[in-house]
Design a protein that fits this description.
Blueprint (H helix, E strand, L loop, with lengths): L6 H16 L6 H20 L7 H23 L10 E7 L4 E3 L2 E11 L9 E6 L12 E7 L2 E2 L11 H6 L3 E6 L5 E5 L3 H19 L3 H12 L7 H9 L10 H17 L5 H18 L4 H18 L6 H15 L7 H21 L7 H28 L1 E3 L2 H24 L6 H24 L5 E3 L5 H19 L7 H12 L2
Parallel strand pairs: 4-7
Antiparallel strand pairs: 1-3, 1-5, 2-3, 3-4, 5-8, 6-7, 9-10
């Protein structure tokens, strides 16, 4: 794979490295100065040496510029969280979601508009705890509420474990929480596009509740189709996690990928000739689905990624899919560099990178005559590559590796596709006679089959293997080693053995 054909790979690495380094800085002054100087040198290089724009020095300076940009963005993001003076304060906030049940209270995720009349709190969020006496459990997202409370800075619950809850919440914009058991006034409604998406999701969820009586099936369907996981109990989550198919419970790249493949297949057999019209239809369907799921970060990431992929595919541009994937990651990290630390971001992109880079080569190794065997082999290839790509990050975040994930995904992915299609059809045609009842029965049967299979696999002894702790650096190195090793093994000529060997040596040297 030539670097000039996938330039966004280098751009992403430079931006991600800069974002990580910026997390240890307190000021963006020197980074901004470096960006200014490097940009000026690039402009001079273009003016003076027009024929040498593609030189090594030009590329090095450009990547350094992106590196310092990542540093600057990370510092700016970290310094966005403002301090609030201790003591009672008058808050005006906008609700970001519906109230969620907590221990003997309701929990609200809100964005701060003003504190004591001052509006210097852009991108600052506040956790509000109250109960049904003071706020309605059906309070809609985008509602403007006013109350008086004393903010408490969020702290780590347990300093003995490795999970830093305070840092986790800070990266999501939460620095303070507030307990309000006084009167809360709803003073206005100003929903944004994400709030409208959450309201749409709540409407569709109510449609599902009318047609799906089984509570367990409803919980799984609402999680898989709409990204609403509040109905799931811990036992179901644990069974899906142990069986290695927990990823289908969270709406992300798999779900958007299924939607994308469905719309591309329909457009391929449709009478629409214009590629631009096909592209607009594809993007409209993808982002409508993202809106239906409330524009959660994982869905937004996947929608951006598949928007890039579909654009390159439909306009017939000679662009490598891996470059489109990395371009979407680059744009996402420009908008929010803190997503680099999200498990869902790393797992989704590591899986997609492994699949996009090696799927065609792996599938071509074996040619089956029958459609059924060919389909099974394609599912196996996707599952193997996805597991290989996510293996280092699964080990890092969860400390264990599911042993039966390849087998479980063979039935989980086809069933997930059927559940998604049936669930959407049920929501769309719920007002018609007879059809919703038939769709509901099919949906419940497929969901129960999936849940029973996950439960059976999870009950097997030694269903997963513990790998202990692994450092961040070694996790990243292991990912690149597996990617390089797979690429080497699938190459016909196999000339670049030194690449995986070099990466392996780095893995053994670096602690």
């Amino acid at each position: 794979m030539l670097y000039k054909e996938t330039p966004f790979t280098g751009y992403c690495i430079a931006l991600a490295t800069g974002s990580i380094c910026g997390s240890f800085m307190h000021s963006a002054l020197y980074c901004n100065a470096a960006i200014f100087l490097l940009s000026a040198s690039l402009i001079l290089n273009i003016i003076i040496c027009k024929n040498r724009i593609a030189s090594i020095s030009y590329g090095l300076v450009f990547h350094c510029c992106i590196f310092f940009l990542g540093c600057s963005l990370s510092v700016i993001k970290k310094n966005e969280l403002a301090c609030i003076s201790p003591g009672p304060a008058h808050f005006v906030v906008r609700t970001d979601n519906y109230p969620a049940p907590a221990a003997r209270s309701l929990k609200l995720h809100t964005s701060i508009i003003t504190v004591n009349g001052y509006g210097n709190y852009k991108n600052n969020r506040l956790l509000v705890y109250t109960n049904e006496k003071y706020i309605s459990p059906t309070l809609k997202p985008g509602s403007i509420i006013s109350f008086v409370s004393s903010p408490v800075e969020i702290s780590d619950f347990d300093s003995t474990d490795d999970f830093d809850y305070r840092l986790f919440m800070n990266r999501r914009g939460f620095r303070y929480s507030a307990f309000c058991y006084n009167d809360i006034s709803v003073i206005d409604q100003k929903p944004g596009i994400r709030h409208l998406g959450l309201r749409l999701r709540n409407y569709l969820l109510n449609r599902l509740k009318e047609k799906v009586d089984d509570e367990k099936s409803l919980a799984i369907v609402s999680a898989m189709t709409l990204g609403y996981r509040d109905l799931l109990d811990d036992r179901v989550r644990e069974e899906f996690r142990k069986s290695g198919i927990v990823h289908i419970m969270a709406v992300s790249g798999l779900h958007v990928g299924i939607i994308s493949m469905m719309i591309l297949s329909l457009l391929k057999v449709s009478r629409v000739k214009s590629e631009i019209v096909k592209l607009l239809i594809s993007l409209f369907v993808i982002w409508t689905y993202a809106l239906m799921t409330g524009l959660s970060p994982s869905v937004t990431r996947a929608s951006v990624m598949f928007s890039f992929l579909n654009t390159g595919y439909l306009i017939n541009r000679p662009v490598r899919p891996i470059n489109s994937v990395m371009a979407s990651a680059f744009v996402i990290l420009l908008i929010n560099p803190d997503l680099l630390y999200e498990a869902s971001f790393l797992l989704s992109y590591s899986a997609v990178i492994a699949i996009v880079a090696n799927y065609t080569k792996l599938v071509s190794l074996v040619n089956f005559r029958g459609h059924i065997l060919g389909y099974v082999w394609k599912m196996i290839a996707i599952s193997l590559l996805a597991q290989a790509g996510t293996l280092p990050f699964v080990a890092f975040f969860f400390g264990e590796i599911p042993l039966f994930s390849v087998v479980s995904n063979l039935f989980a992915i086809p069933l997930a596709t059927i559940i998604l299609c049936t669930g959407f059809a049920l929501m769309l045609f719920s007002s018609l006679p007879l059809i919703p009842d038939l769709l509901g029965k099919v949906l419940v049967y497929c969901v129960n089959t999936l849940a029973d299979a996950a439960s059976a696999i999870a009950s097997i002894n030694r269903v997963s293997v513990s790998v202990g702790e692994i450092s961040v650096i070694r996790t990243v190195i292991l990912f690149f080693f597996l990617l390089a090793l797979i690429t080497y093994l699938l190459e016909r000529e196999r000339k670049n053995l030194h690449i995986p060997l070099t990466i392996m040596i780095l893995y053994l040297i670096i602690p």
